[in-house]
Amino acid sequence: MSKYFIMALSIFGMYSLFGQSRVAVVENQFKVNVLLPGLVYEHGFNDKNTLYSEVSLGFAYRSNYYAGSSWQLYPNINEQFRHYYNLDKRALKGRRVTHNSGNFVALNAIYNFKSISTNNNFSEDTSSFTIAPVWGLQRTYNRNFNLGLNIGVGYNFDKYDNEFVPVINFTLGWVIGK
Fold it and tell me: For residue range 93-115, what is the model confidence (pLDDT) as tens digits?
């Protein structure tokens, strides 16, 4: 009986030892996005929540029956309040959690400035604001190579039309620093 008691006590002790070690997000993290050129700063508030701030260039495709179609280039600001929900589970499975490598849900706010590309067919181009709940993932691999994806459905506000829009953000770049 004492063997079983000692074995149970050891298992309980290991469980409580691992249960108390919580994985936390990185407090300050800078990244460079090369896919859509830009800079990212992610600030950790507590073990699982961060504020993600990105300034980058975006691309858009516009189509209009009268004016035709066009690709546009515009600067944007992307803010997300992220909640990482699977860092502990990834760490227990031996998966990478460095540089906030995990899955998250977020409230996303995007401000798109007026297009900097010139197109006479779309002279009424304006800025817009989109708010959306998103689900995403972020992974950082060897040599700080970073990959991020988040998707959701949001509501877009602009001068002429308010509508539901798909929100997709794919980043490819590097974490700066250790």
Answer: 999 999 999 999 999 999 999 88
Closest to 100 (Cα-Cα) out of 74, 82, 78: 82
The CA dihedral of 89, 95, 101, 102, to the nearest 10 degrees, is -30
- Give CA–CA dist 108/132, Å, rounded: 5
Query: Among 178, 169, 18, which Cα is nearest to 99's?
Result: 178
Helices (H), the chain: 2-20, 87-92
What is the SS3 assignment for 12? Answer: helix
Name the phi and psi angles at 50, rounded to 5. Answer: -135, 160
Report yes or no: 149 and 170 within 8 Å, Cβ to Cβ: yes
Q: Express each pLDDT in 137-174 by its tens digit.
A: 999 999 999 999 999 999 999 888 899 999 999 999 99
